[in-house]
Amino acid sequence: MATIERRTDIGPPHYDKFLHPIIKENYGKWKYHDTLRAGVLVHVGETGSIYTVRAASPRLISTNFIRLMTGLATKYADGYLRFTSRNNVEFLLGNKDNIDPLIKELSDNGVPVGGLNNSISNVVHTQGWVHCHSAATDASGLVKVVMDELYEYFVEMKLPHKLRIAVACCLNMCGAVHASDIAILGLHRTPPRIDHSTLPNLCEIPTTVASCPNNAIRPTSIEGKTTVKVDEDKCMYCGNCFTVCPAMPLADPLNDGVSIWVGGKISNARTEPMFTKLAIPFLPNNPPRWPEVTEAVKNIVEVYAKNAKPYERVGEWINRIGWPKFFDLTGIEFTKYHLDDFRYAGTTYRRSTQNRY
Ligand code: SF4
Ligand code: SF4
């Protein structure tokens, strides 16, 4: 009897289809891997070696950039490349002799190679003013100026350990800001402004009320029309309500800005994964170069580079020296905003893979 092949269009194709033949052959059979130089890795398997060249990407990328990358992959890497979770571009080469010409051509096109081991890898970020309605700051602009400032730490491996930076442009944190060594987080500081004249026509009241994670929105009536009110003490300026109700904008050019968080990591190595904690509660939005933000981030990176022990992540270093010493060394002012009111302690304490309850 003829077999019937079942096909569905659900989900992506199996990743197996896109693996380099050397990776396929050696899957689960690798002997070791090593770093040959900044941005270049070798994985040695039973039947061959694969060389990885890691390059930066500007994250929001143009068609021209994609054409450049795919062209270089075709020329030097048999067409094999991948984007990492932080949007580094990794070329997978079967031929060692192609490493130098590939790096030269990347460099000729202004694309740096690095981001491995004791360096800063590409900065992961969210949409920013380019694309999201909730943004309290830009994301790609901020990343560009921060990486311009920290370029040397991408192309050289001179930090105590790997350093991950993330940017999210509002509290919804689409980026990995809760679990990166240094996080730049856009924040609103004012509650939504309600346009009662358009809200009844634009928004569905039950959906708007349900959109608030802090139960700050209640239905009300103004001049006979059903609308909503916001309990400002409960509002945490997340912008969720604006997502479902365009009559509740909260972007504010004067009050929106940026906060800096430190000490997060996803890795289980040595110590358990950690959430970031507040370092700087507010810095102004000052495009196009955000000098206050770049200076603050560079300061933290340099103090960490100078004081941490080898293989200590930022959070591990801070835990060893203590937070008072961290504030002393970095010169960051300790304010009332650094005090935790433990409101969310029940759901945020001890949520690691090592210990759950
Ligand atoms: Fe939009 Fe906030 Fe996500 Fe940025 S972090 S893309 S503003 S929801
Ligand atoms: Fe609620 Fe967030 Fe809207 Fe404030 S901004 S009212 S917390 S949904």
TrEMBL record:
GO annotation terms (biological process): sulfate assimilation
InterPro entries xrefs: 4Fe4S_Fe-S-bd (IPR017896), 4Fe4S_Fe_S_CS (IPR017900), DsrB (IPR011808), NiRdtase/SiRdtase_haem-b_fer (IPR005117), Nit/Sulf_reduc_fer-like_dom_sf (IPR036136), NO2/SO3_Rdtase_4Fe4S_dom (IPR006067), NO2/SO3_Rdtase_4Fe4S_prot (IPR045169), NO2/SO3_Rdtase_4Fe4S_sf (IPR045854)
Pfam families linked: Fer4, NIR_SIR, NIR_SIR_ferr
Enzyme Commission number(s) of this protein: 1.8.7.1
Superkingdom of origin organism: Bacteria
PROSITE patterns for this protein: 4FE4S_FER_1, 4FE4S_FER_2
Coiled-coil region list: none
GO cellular component entries: sulfite reductase complex (NADPH)
UniProt-recorded Gene Ontology molecular function terms: 4 iron, 4 sulfur cluster binding; dissimilatory sulfite reductase (NADH) activity; electron transfer activity; heme binding; metal ion binding; sulfite reductase (ferredoxin) activity; sulfite reductase activity
Reaction(s) catalysed (UniProt annotation): hydrogen sulfide + 6 oxidized [2Fe-2S]-[ferredoxin] + 3 H2O = sulfite + 6 reduced [2Fe-2S]-[ferredoxin] + 7 H(+)
Keyword Glycoprotein in record: no
Record-given protein name: assimilatory sulfite reductase (ferredoxin)
Organism: Candidatus Aquicultor primus
